[in-house]
Amino acid sequence: MQFLTYIGYIIKYLLVGLGIAALFIVFIPGRFSINSPAQQTTDTGQVAQQSAPFSGYADMLDKARPAVVSIQARSKLYPLNDPECQNSLRAIPSGTNACAFLNNGSGVFIDEQGHIVTNAHVLDKAESIIVELLSGHKFAARVIGLDKDSDLALLKVDYQPQHILPLGTEDKSRVGDIVFAIGTPYMAFEQTVTQGIISAKFFSRVSHYIQTDAALRSGNSGGALVNSQGELVGITALSSRDESGEKTYQNFAIAAADVQHVVNELLENGVVQRGWLGLNGDMTINFRSIVQEMNLPLPQQQMLASQIEQLPFGQGIVITAVNGNGPADKAGLQALDIITEVNGKPINSTADLMAAIWNVAPETEIQLEYYRAGQKNQTEVVLGYRD
């Protein structure tokens, strides 16, 4: 009898528990829904599929690598007694009294017309250029144009590539982005891939550069730097090494937007025409170097120091010399004027001033703001042609 009583209690509490569970399921269904691991329920009750687990970058690189080519550039033949043959050259063919430069590099198909971007130094003294695809097919290439200032060159082959890496007009890359360098290093491993991040971005001379820790070696010059989506963000250009030439310290690529500008100029004109301002300048924070360079007497030193103190954060470039009858001279600019803006953009360094005009075409009018004797002034300068 006592046993039956226990059984009754158990059944009673089981029924109560099931009833409470049923209430929870009815009134809070989202907390107790049973979906497959690859599904989740949205706020509207619809089932959303979860994304597949990350499996690496192989699929992206399968599309990007065929757009990168190997380049073999050979100079004309020189007699062995020619001074050129004293450099690192090979006799061609063996046993003859001739030598030639042999350069290896990389390039990138940027359109379906067969245009290839590479570094200008890869084509140094080149008389014949052979382009080899990842598939092993080879084509003779011709030079459309060279720009030694930016170290960029544009080639063309009679071939319509199926894989290209188009250039963009905007630089969307950021420090910290994952990037991949694709090229053919000196050990002849075609389309080798190295991974890194964007370490820094800066302007130097005529281009914006991307610094990366993705390893580069000789032969990578002119190759592709792509992001994790397989977009071309730069053309690999150079790296710094120790005296042995082996250990890499820093690697750099030219930003794709600047490469696009050079390509457009080479296609239209065969050369890159850059504007010329016709002056020399130094940062306002380099007061001592300006005084020494211009050999300023004490009154002018005091006047210049007073003007610099009025500028926010030492902003501006002090004009130290003006080319006679040049664009700046024609616009009325003088030594000791302090340039603070070009086309509305603040000028905080010499690099800022260079960046503001180097990729601007000659005969373009720019707006320039400057200070003279403590007074803010504005003028228009028509850029000239740089030799």
UniProtKB/TrEMBL annotation:
<dbReference type="InterPro" id="IPR009003">
    <property type="entry name" value="Peptidase_S1_PA"/>
</dbReference>
<keyword id="KW-0645">Protease</keyword>
<dbReference type="InterPro" id="IPR036034">
    <property type="entry name" value="PDZ_sf"/>
</dbReference>
<dbReference type="GO" id="GO:0006508">
    <property type="term" value="P:proteolysis"/>
</dbReference>
<keyword id="KW-0378">Hydrolase</keyword>
<dbReference type="Pfam" id="PF13365">
    <property type="entry name" value="Trypsin_2"/>
</dbReference>
<dbReference type="InterPro" id="IPR001478">
    <property type="entry name" value="PDZ"/>
</dbReference>
<dbReference type="InterPro" id="IPR001940">
    <property type="entry name" value="Peptidase_S1C"/>
</dbReference>
<dbReference type="Pfam" id="PF13180">
    <property type="entry name" value="PDZ_2"/>
</dbReference>
<dbReference type="InterPro" id="IPR051201">
    <property type="entry name" value="Chloro_Bact_Ser_Proteases"/>
</dbReference>
<protein>
    <submittedName>
        <fullName>Signaling protein</fullName>
    </submittedName>
</protein>
<dbReference type="GO" id="GO:0004252">
    <property type="term" value="F:serine-type endopeptidase activity"/>
</dbReference>
